[in-house]
Amino acid sequence: MLTILQISDAHLSPRNALFRENLALVAAWAEAMRPDLVVATGDLSLDGADREEDLEFAARSLRALPAPLLSVPGNHDVGSHPRTMPDQPVDAARLARFRRVVGEDWWLRDLPGWRMVGLNTEIMGTGLEDEAAQAGFIAEAAAGAGDRRIAMFQHKPAFVEDPADPTFDYWSVPPHARVALDPLLNHPALRLVASGHLHLHRTATHGPATLAWAPALSFVVEEALQEGLPGARFCGAMVHRLGADGAVASETLAPDGTVVRWLGDIRAETYPA
Which CATH architecture has domain 2-269? Predict the structure, then answer.
């Protein structure tokens, strides 16, 4: 059995000490339980899209965990679609910074019985050359899975509730870009899609696959700012146990002492309006 520790939306920065106590609690769990892999599903940093020192601090902090680290970028690491983040559109310079400081922004790792695929959702729908390159990678990753089961890791969920929902919003992959995910999202061997971004926890199913939204390690968002979004508001991480037979057991991890902060209370220290 493989044990994957998923950490999402840590929002780390050397400019404040916010959220570090929650990371320390998860790190203590990892020291005791020794997962096979740590996957950071985006927003490692508070403002890595504009501040290299935030990306460096976040990467260094997460690499200190006692397992190999794989990461995919979030909107606060590399920017996102200019329609949803006009002040920080994802671009070649921001992507190059992430790759230099953190590592690959999409990747594939084969482990016993499983194919792990990490994707960059922030370039999807943008028309950047990287989007087309990643689409080719997705098709190849699906075609070459063989008899392995597939687990996907990404920052944004592909959709909130309905894959055919035409709404273009801040919360999920742009509707016109979802078709690029089809080779993996509709693959018969897909068993797990683990994402973050929403600062909400929820599990659902898509065929035989578990769709797991990880809670944010850092903070929760007031319901008034996420009207209509389903999910539970608390802070923590997720643990996914992947069996040799393709079984998936996903559970939340919120060690005793985990601090839950609300965005409204810390906005001045994080993302001033």
Answer: 4-Layer Sandwich (3.60)
